[in-house]
Amino acid sequence: MAASSARMLGRFDEALQFARRAVDLDPLNADSWQSLGDTDYYAGHLDAAAADFQKALELNPDVFPGNISLSRTYIVQGRAQDALSKIELVRYDLERASLHAITYYALGRTKEAHAALSELIAKYQASGAYQITEVYAFGNQSDKAFEWLDRAYVQRDDDLIVTKVDPFLKNLHNDPRYVAFLKKLHLPT
Predict the structure, then answer these.
(1) Most buried among 36, 41, 62, 87, using CB within 10 Å?
(2) Digit-coded pLDDT (tens) for 119-140
(3) In a 3-state reduction of DSSP, which class is residue 8?
(4) Per residue in 36-82, pLDDT tens?
(5) In this structure, what are the phi and psi dihedrals at residue 63, rounded to the nearest 5 degrees?
(6) Cα–Cα distance between 32 and 41 in angstroms, integer?
(7) Backbone φ and ψ of 61, nearest 5°
(8) How do the residues of the chain divide into helix, strand and coil, expressed in percent and rounded to 5?
(9) Closest CA to 77 of 39, 52, 97, 48
(10) Which residues make Cβ contacts (< 8 Å) with residue 136, sequence separation at least 6?
(11) Between helices 30-43 and 46-59, what is the axis angle to 10°?
């Protein structure tokens, strides 16, 4: 939990110390490897994150979020084709739908990305505003991304906690609305 708290605030050195300590104390705990992977992912250590997530899944194929995290890592690494096979193993419809849309954008399959995004909105607009934000941000559609980010805020979407460190929101970082939104969430800028 200490690693998670530090990670969400962008204090990656501190988060990595906590996460590595948890793995050292219990190297057979899949959740500890998952936490280390999350920390490496958000810190931008993508090769290490992929290895951590694979270790977590090896120890427990049902570790959460497991295949979601590995899919995200592959996408950010530029390995969108590899992500597709992992996405099929994701058990949560909302996450699977949003990851498909993002992966299709990453592969340049715009028509399929738009179709997946339309389906995502139709099914999950009331509960998946943050994931919709991620798709729009990744697809470099800032105005729509901020519209859905505001919806996520109104919905009190618990995924907002990763707004500061989410690589899928990278395309928003230079927009003044991004810093304003971080302040609205009381996250350090």
Answers:
(1) 36
(2) 999 999 999 999 999 999 999 9
(3) helix
(4) 999 999 999 999 999 999 999 999 999 999 999 999 999 999 999 99
(5) -60, 140
(6) 14
(7) -60, -15
(8) 75, 0, 25
(9) 48
(10) 117, 142, 144, 145, 147, 148
(11) 160
